[in-house]
């Protein structure tokens, strides 16, 4: 039975959901939000229904730092079907061309992959959320409209061959935000002279989070039946998403002024960039170093709350 909105509670933290194939990221978010009885929740970067894997779900105050995970590097396991291109670049689209794969050697495949490592340019696919004159490209694509798209620069940090058998190519890719894996697969297919589309996609990591920390949806449901205390044991602290930024500790006076929205001067703080802010006993949020060396508040947390 659906719970009433009044049954919801304040709960803060991050759940690393292993999203199953066949449901949207928003559907997964709503299920987790309902199970936790959370008043507030958001995810950090959609996975298509075809894709599975890591979907960090931010509850409560953690939603304030979701942008940092959206901007983080991602890690995927990709399976491509060689010899076929589709309208969408994945298995959900209609086949638009079929070409023979040929007798490709392992060396040819590895050399093709090597061309796409480092900083590259990608043209966003028509089936994407990029806007053109106020309209999402995927909406135009569904109407049979194709428009010119400007290339974007992304970074492929690692591209590793996992398996090559017949018309199946499997690889791991660690990439910057904004990378279109479907476009990468299509471009690799063209480099091999046969075309390709993504037949399976699994996200294995986001920012500091790795595959081992994920929880399957059925496991989350089972814990929910044991009670909220068991369910809350899945929550990671908010600051766990922000490990790549240095931490600074504030005195009580500094923390007071910072909460009023005023920048403060913190001895021995870094010279630039974002920083994690800590008071005497707890994480306060994120700040940013100004040109004059002071620390300005950017994303501050409310007072420490006990989940429940």
Description:
This protein folds into three domains: 5-71 and 209-240, Pseudouridine synthase (2-Layer Sandwich), CATH 3.30.2350.10; 78-203, 2-Layer Sandwich (Pseudouridine synthase); 245-300, Archaeosine Trna-guanine Transglycosylase, Chain: A, domain 4, CATH 2.30.130.10. Strand 16 and strand 17 form a beta hairpin. Strands 1, 2, 3, 4, 7, 10, 11, 12 and 13 form a nine-stranded mixed β-sheet that branches. A four-stranded mixed β-sheet has the order 14-15-16-17, covered by helices on one side. The chain has a two-stranded antiparallel ribbon with strand order 5-6. It has helices spanning 25-36, 66-70, 106-114, 137-142, 181-191, 217-226, 228-232, 252-259; strands at residues 13-19, 41-43, 52-59, 74-82, 84-86, 95-98, 118-122, 131-132, 135-136, 152-165, 168-175, 196-206, 215-216, 247-249, 274-278, 283-289, 295-300. It is globular. The two termini are 21 Å apart. It is an alpha+beta fold. It has eight helices and 17 strands. Helix 1 (25-36) runs parallel beside helix 6 (217-226). The model is unreliable at 304-308 (pLDDT under 50).
Q: Count the E strands.
A: 17
Enumerate how many helices there are, as a single number: 8
Q: How many angstroms separate the termini?
A: 21 Å
Secondary-structure-based class equals alpha+beta
What is the subunit organization of this protein? Answer: single chain
Order of helices and strands: EHEEHEEEHEEEHEEHEEHHEHEEE
The CATH superfamily of the largest domain turns out to be Pseudouridine synthase
CATH architectural name of the largest domain: 2-Layer Sandwich
Radius of gyration from CA coordinates: 22 Å
Describe the global form: globular
Mean pLDDT: 90
Name of the CATH class of the largest domain:
Alpha Beta
The main pleated sheet reads as: 9 strands, mixed
Number of domains: 3
Strand content: 25-35%
């Amino acid at each position: 039975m659906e719970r009433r909105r009044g049954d919801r509670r304040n709960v803060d933290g991050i759940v690393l959901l292993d999203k199953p194939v066949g449901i949207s990221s928003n559907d997964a978010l709503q299920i987790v939000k309902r199970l936790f009885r959370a008043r507030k929740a958001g995810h950090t970067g959609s996975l298509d229904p075809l894709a599975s894997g890591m979907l960090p779900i931010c509850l409560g105050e953690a939603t304030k730092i979701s942008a940092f995970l959206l901007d983080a590097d991602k890690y995927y396991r990709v399976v491509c079907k060689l010899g076929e291109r589709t309208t969408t670049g994945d298995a959900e689209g209609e086949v638009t061309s079929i070409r023979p794969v040929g007798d490709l050697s392992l060396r040819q495949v590895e050399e093709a992959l090597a061309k796409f490592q480092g900083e590259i340019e990608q043209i966003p696919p028509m089936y994407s959320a990029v806007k053109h004159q106020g309209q999402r490209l995927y909406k135009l694509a569904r109407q049979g409209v194709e428009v010119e798209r400007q290339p974007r620069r992304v970074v492929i940090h690692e591209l590793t061959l996992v398996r090559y058998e017949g018309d199946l190519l499997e690889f791991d890719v660690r990439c910057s935000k904004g990378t279109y894996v479907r476009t990468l697969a299509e471009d690799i297919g063209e480099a091999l002279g046969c075309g390709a589309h993504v037949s399976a996609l699994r996200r294995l990591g986001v920012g500091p989070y790795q595959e081992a920390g994920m929880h399957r949806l059925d496991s989350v449901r089972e814990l929910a039946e044991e009670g909220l205390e068991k369910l809350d044991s899945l929550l990671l602290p908010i600051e766990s998403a922000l490990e790549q930024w240095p931490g600074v500790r504030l005195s009580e006076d500094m923390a007071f002024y910072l909460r009023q929205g005023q920048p403060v001067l913190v001895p021995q703080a870094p010279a630039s960039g974002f920083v994690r802010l800590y008071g005497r006993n707890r994480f306060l949020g994120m700040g940013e170093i100004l040109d004059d060396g002071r620390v300005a508040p950017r994303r501050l947390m409310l007072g420490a709350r006990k989940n429940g």
